[in-house]
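Renewal narrative, Specific Aim 1. Our central claim is that a sequence can be written position by position from structural information alone. The example that follows is taken directly from our test logs and has not been curated for this report. It begins with the structure tokens describing the chain, in the order in which they were read.
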């Protein structure tokens, strides 16, 4: 069974909380709103900070804040910060070289994945964090 990653969903949730609030948010508070372990959130925050999307500070008054306005942060930037680039899993073992499909399926799936990634990234680039927050207020 293939497990899907929830890192992107958690990261968008965290970023929307930060965009929605005027104060720093601790990893404990963010973990509570996402309903997950603070360690999971801290790992996400590190990735988001490394991507330049948030700033964090330690201590009692510490926490995370957006590094730039929500309208200048795309969902693609968030996705790129927390997820691997691989859209499809690859064959765990090389397919049979005797099979006409097995001989070329890797190359064909590479082409399909490249096209799908291009479309996926284009769509996520067009949606800003501010768009997400606006939609949340309408929901």
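The sequence written for that structure reads:
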């Amino acid at each position: 069974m293939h497990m899907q990653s929830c890192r992107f969903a958690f990261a968008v949730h965290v970023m929307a909380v930060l965009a929605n609030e005027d104060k720093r948010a601790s990893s404990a508070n963010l973990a509570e709103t996402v309903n997950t372990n603070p360690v999971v959130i801290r790992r996400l925050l590190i990735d988001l900070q490394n991507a330049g999307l948030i700033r964090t500070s330690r201590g009692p008054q510490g926490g995370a804040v957006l590094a730039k306005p929500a309208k200048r942060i795309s969902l693609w930037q968030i996705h790129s910060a927390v997820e691997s680039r691989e859209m499809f899993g690859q064959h765990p073992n090389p397919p049979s070289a005797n099979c006409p499909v097995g001989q070329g399926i890797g190359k064909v799936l590479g082409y399909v994945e490249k096209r799908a990634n291009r479309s996926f990234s284009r769509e996520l680039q067009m949606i800003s964090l501010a768009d997400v927050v606006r939609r949340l207020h309408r929901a």
